[in-house]
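During the no-cost extension, the postdoctoral fellow (Dr. R.K.) reprocessed legacy sequence entries with the updated structure-token encoder. One reprocessed record is reproduced below for audit purposes.
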Amino acid sequence: MVAKADVISFVEQSYEIYESEQQWLSSLCEVAIEIYGPDWMRGAIGYHVNFEEDGRTWLSSIVGAGDYPEKVMRGLHKFNEMDTAIHQGKGSVGQKAAYWALKKVYRAGQRLPLDIVLLSEINVPTTVATMGMKGATDMFCFRAPHLDGSGYLIIALPFQRSASAAARNNEMNQMLSAHVQSAARLRNRLRVEQGKPSGTVLLENSLDVLPVDGAVVDSRSGRIVDADGDAQSTSMQEEIRYRVRQIDAARSHSSGRGQDAVQLWQGLLSGQWSVVDRHDSDGRRYIVLHKNRENVRDPRGLTADEARVAIYAARGLSNKLIAYQLGISESSVASQLSSAFSKLKVQKRIALRKALGI
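Re-encoded structure tokens follow.
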């Protein structure tokens, strides 16, 4: 368990990419308990919801932390068993009904506005009681959806009373989600590069091996030890040095390590870079920056940047939070969104959902 965990601890844990998926998710759940959970919360559970091309909804890397009932874990694994049976043409009528009901819930989670916080006053108490969470009256669901719609990561924390103020701080939760998305995407990309299967431990490359399209920075001096691709440009290196200083400021206790501290990480997120702490054999600390940008292709004439902004806007994010997610300025968001509106021939954000098929 992380001692005296805070939101910066959550960000730092997100970028602990050299762990198995189970270890990584379990640690995120433990930090989330410390941040969001007073003594009267039951624990946390984390897992991935994956939407397969053949129409399947698959749950993976299911982990629990704290006092989370085993019945819930068994239920989530049972969903996968029903999925397998049904896709093999097996399963009873009752199993099929239960499976399609749960699948509808997960698919709905993909289509919900990207609010990250889901606090239900009506449906959740019944749901959590059915799942073995008797005594829970509310639930906080931290979602980090994939921009390409292929699924999302979820950390669920049941409450026995109304959720804490931290859980209701939607803007902060969206910022934290940006880091989880960025780190999860980096983990997947590095696995592909290393030829490692999903869920396994990544190889910790030596600092002599530069990440493709990235940089290595000496955290103490701010000196860029090596750079590749976009990180070689003078303007980008100035940006990198500035952001590294901001990260160190966020990590200091004097900054409060709250929402304001998380905001200092802007520019080193899903749209730009993933930041990973490394220590060399001589004990010196380095920061490794990996270029970590999603490829979003849109057949309706939008550029990749316009498509990213439009997708986030369609899911309910403000310009400020879109800027944070993508590591760009609010003025850039406004410009790209205006261009997307023009190309898609819509005038309001709500119309984007239909235009983009979200």
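The mean pLDDT is 78. The domain at 304-356 is CATH 1.10.10.10 (Arc Repressor Mutant, subunit A). The remaining legacy entries will be reprocessed before the final report is submitted.
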